[in-house]
Amino acid sequence: MSTFKAYFLEGFHHILDVNGYDHILFVLALSAIYLMKDWRKVLILITAFTIGHSITLALSTLNIVEIKAELIEFLIPVTIFITAFANLFKKERSLKSTNSMQLNYIFALLFGLIHGLGFSNYLKAILGKNSSIVMELLAFNIGLEIGQIIVVLSFLLISFIFIDILGTKRRDWVLIISSAIGGIAITIMMETKFW
Q1: Overall number of domains in the chain
Q2: Domain range for 101
Q3: Can you give the pTM of this predicted structure?
Q4: Model confidence pLDDT, tens digit, residues 132-175
Q5: Of these four, 31, 59, 77, 143, which has the most CB atoms within 10 Å of its CB?
Q6: Which residue spans traverse the membrane (predicted)?
Q7: pLDDT digit string (tens) for the chain, length 195 residues
């Protein structure tokens, strides 16, 4: 198997791994306010997240930036909680507003920087002492991006079923999903070794 394919699959499986559900929760928190018809906006959002985590993933993997793993393990659920919590205060009309959704793009990019540091420990472990890591980083990030797109499109499909077919109010859907994600994020924060 080629090196590119091997790292692509590592990235792809890493995001879809049930043990790495914290990253999935963040992507779902970002996507909770969108509908199926917003799929283009969501793809841009996920790409903003990928850009954010790609920057720190590269910097950390190259040992340019080093932050204690315990701090990152704590900050990742904090980003999930903040994103989910912000969703709770979006009114029905603001869910349709472009300005309200711009905040999620900022969250995706900035919080992606923190998530990239979380991915870096995993990637460093599988890279070892490889001298040239550009292709490996690219392949890993593309795999992550494809995995995230699958997660988000699956979530949008579930949202479509509940909102468009079963008639759940959009605001109720956002409240339920965001509250559940926020609650899980608090649990993860409390379980970290940061305390």
Answers
A1: 1
A2: 3-13+20-191
A3: 0.89
A4: 788 888 998 899 999 999 999 999 999 999 999 999 999 999 99
A5: 31
A6: 20-36, 43-65, 71-89, 101-122, 142-166, 173-190
A7: 688 999 899 889 988 888 778 989 999 999 999 999 999 999 999 999 999 988 998 888 888 888 888 999 999 999 999 999 999 988 766 566 555 567 888 889 999 999 988 888 777 777 766 667 888 889 988 999 999 999 999 999 999 999 999 999 999 999 999 999 999 999 999 998 776
Separation of alpha carbons 164 and 157, rounded Å: 10
Q: Which residue's structure tokens are 């559900």?
A: 21
End-to-end Cα separation, the chain, in angstroms: 42
CA 126 to chain CA centroid, nearest Å: 21
2 token code pair:
């080629």
Whole-angstrom Cα distance, residue 159 to residue 177?
A: 10
The Cα 10–Cα 107 span in angstroms is 25
131 phi-psi bin (left φ>0, alpha ψ -120 to 50, beta other): alpha
Contact 10, 146 (CB under 8 A): no
